[in-house]
Amino acid sequence: LDRIGTPEYSEPVDISGVKIYLQPQNYASVSKTNLMNFEEQRLIQAATDENVPEEIRTERLTVRLNRLLDITVHQLVDSTAYIETSDGVKVREPDFIFEFYNNAERAVTKAVQDRVIEFGQAISMNPANVACSACTKDFSIPLVFDYASFFVVGS
């Protein structure tokens, strides 16, 4: 646990004088992120399924891409404490923050996403390297704390 860092949320993402202050994600937001990862996997499957006609694949891909974009913007909103404009106005309303990200240039959302990823990496744990006692083969076990099953007895 000593290797887990603490992200510095007091330092904003500064884009041309607009300061975006981030906050830790709550459980609902983490679940949305997991859903987004699942959607990405389904997106890849839908785009590569040659048993489905091209027209239907394109339609499914469009629907999933739009959903993925919506989830991404909501994830950014959930990760944003407030946005401070260049004249010092602090915007905290989620609807306005959603509108900001929805209309922002790609560089803005990318900068915020990069910072959120950086925070996630700061609090993640490296896999544990272990050896099988029976065959002595080395392998890694990812250490993941899943909120949903943390106190549940494993199956």
Descriptive report:
The protein is of the alpha+beta class and 155 residues long. It is 48% helix and 15% strand. The chain contains 4 helices and 6 strands. It has helices at residues 27-48, 54-78, 94-103, 106-123; strands at residues 13-15, 18-22, 80-84, 90-91, 128-131, 138-141. A hairpin with a 6-residue loop joins strand 5 and strand 6. It is flat and about 65 Å long. The mean pLDDT is 81.
Short note summarizing the structure:
The protein is an alpha+beta fold. The chain is built from 4 helices and 6 strands. The strands form 2 sheets. It has a 4-stranded antiparallel β-sheet. A two-stranded antiparallel sheet has the order 5-6.
Fold topology:
Elements: E1 13-15, E2 18-22, H1 27-48, H2 54-78, E3 80-84, E4 90-91, H3 94-103, H4 106-123, E5 128-131, E6 138-141
Antiparallel strand pairs: 1-2, 2-3, 3-4, 5-6
Helix pairs in contact: 1-2, 2-3
